[in-house]
Amino acid sequence: MEFRFFYHFGNFLLMLKGMFSRPENMKMYWKQFMQQCVDIGVGSLGIVFIISLFMGGVTTLQTAYQLVSPIIPKSTIAQVVRDTIILEFAPTLTSIVLAGVIGSKIASELGNMRISEQIDALEIMGINTKGYLILPKILAATLMIPLLVAIAGFLGIWGGKEAGVLSGVLSSEQFMMGLRQEFKAYNVFFAMAKSYTFGFIIASVSAYYGYNVQGGALEIGKASTTAVVVSCVLILFMDYALTAILL
Amino acid sequence: MIELKDITKGFGDKEILKGVSATMESGKVNLIIGASGSGKTVMMKCIVGLMKVDSGSILYDNQDFTAMDHRAKKEIRQQIGMLFQGSALFDSMTVEQNVMFPLEMFSKDSLKERKKRVDECLERVQLKDAAKKFPAEISGGMKKRVGIARAIVLNPKYLFCDEPNSGLDPQTSLLIDQLIKELTQEYNITTVINTHDMNTVMESGDHIVYMYQGQKQWEGSNKEIVFSKDQQLNDFIFASEFLRDAKEMRQLDMFKDSKWKDQLEEQLKRDGKK
């Protein structure tokens, strides 16, 4: 991968700037936005459901494995699981998986539209293609990814409880007690702030690489891979930055 | 009418268009012909504004397209219909939805009126039966016709076709050529076709611009092209023995009632062909 940071960053900013113009037909833009919400939100529910349940279950078992001291109450396991999932696993792990699922879809969809001249066809009609194709994707991702992260958080904690009870590590009452111990609503705000940021990164970076594909089918695959890799790296970088700033 | 005035376009050090000036006449089928790499695709992309020219100007009915702001360009573009080489249909939409799309985006007509217009256009390209099919389910020729229907649905003033016959059999090519020619006359459109197809040149070329190595080498009509003395143009058009023979036969046939008949026969005699 050719590393030309300032070239790509400048083009990326220009792409974002180019998205904002008066819509040719607000109804069509709304339709496109709703379509993207369905694709991104409903389309990713299955994978979010699976990874969240297992993520919660594994977190419970591993926390229980490490907290072996008799002076630490069992309910602490639930507290650790809750905070780990809310602070890190639900927003970051889910977003990394979604970068693969949604990011590659956006990049390949736009790449294919570019190669098959569908984007040119829209341009010729007088449509602002950045506004019509990219903006709804970014808005839909920044709306749906936090919702998916919230669902992942609930499912992760529920999965953790079920794994803990089924394996006999702790009882359902102990888990529920631990969940309520020292709960900070700010952690939820922090998780949401991260998921908004990650949602923007996934959609905008993938759209950038897809929209600017040049060449043929091979380049669509390359753009898709690059979009996922760059999104993941940026997610991890922003994860660190937001943690350092907000916590 | 579209006028090109001394347009140049390059990529890096390589100059693709070297000061091309030409006129695309309204109500006529204007062809841009030339060998691969001669710059005709770049020229078409510059005319429709998909590429910016380095210098020179492009006038749409005396309005300088190259000097227009974004909004004014958008207005011109809404008068343009374009048929792409690969048809560029939207994969996720049916044939009907593809044709409906420009109307949904730009027309203020009611749904009933829009549907009526879509039906008219599909009827015009004889594709009403395929309205509910997706692009993946129809043939290459049908895709081109859907592309034409989508291009004309907003009653454009200018129609651009990028290699409309590529990948089509001769009979389907002929149908597409006829359709474009009829539509051009019917709606008095300024049609610009970028083609390699010699059949199109001879059948539809009301006005032809021949490009050679980024420059306009020749300009004229399909009736004049057979008399051209331009070596490059002749090499390009009559590339095979078959076509050279066909040229002579065609010349006699096409001009049997014309004032050039004697001149042509004389020339053929001189060449030892008759």
TrEMBL record, chain A:
Q: Which UniProt keywords apply?
A: Membrane, Transmembrane, Transmembrane helix
Q: Does the keyword Transmembrane helix apply?
A: yes
Cellular component per GO?
ATP-binding cassette (ABC) transporter complex
Keyword presence, Ribosomal protein? no
Q: Which domain of life is it from?
A: Bacteria
Tell me the Pfam families matching this sequence.
Answer: MlaE (PF02405)
Protein name listed in UniProt: Phospholipid/cholesterol/gamma-HCH transport system permease protein
Species of the source: Chitinophaga eiseniae
Q: What is the lineage of its organism?
A: Bacteria, Pseudomonadati, Bacteroidota, Chitinophagia, Chitinophagales
TrEMBL record, chain B:
For the ABC transporter domain, which residue ranges apply?
Answer: 2-238
UniProt-listed InterPro entries: AAA+_ATPase, ABC_transporter-like_ATP-bd, ABC_transporter-like_CS, P-loop_NTPase
> Per the record's keyword annotation, is ATP-binding included, yes or no?
yes
The record's keywords, sorted A to Z, are: ATP-binding, Nucleotide-binding, Transport
A Pfam family found in this protein is ABC_tran
Q: Which domain of life is it from?
A: Bacteria
The GO terms describing molecular function are: ATP binding; ATP hydrolysis activity
Entry-linked PROSITE patterns: ABC_TRANSPORTER_1, ABC_TRANSPORTER_2
Keyword Hydrolase appears in the UniProt entry: no
User: PANTHER family attached here?
Assistant: INTERMEMBRANE PHOSPHOLIPID TRANSPORT SYSTEM ATP-BINDING PROTEIN MLAF, PROTEIN TRIGALACTOSYLDIACYLGLYCEROL 3, CHLOROPLASTIC
Q: What's the protein here called?
A: Phospholipid/cholesterol/gamma-HCH transport system ATP-binding protein
Protein's organism = Chitinophaga eiseniae
Taxonomy of origin reads: Bacteria, Pseudomonadati, Bacteroidota, Chitinophagia, Chitinophagales
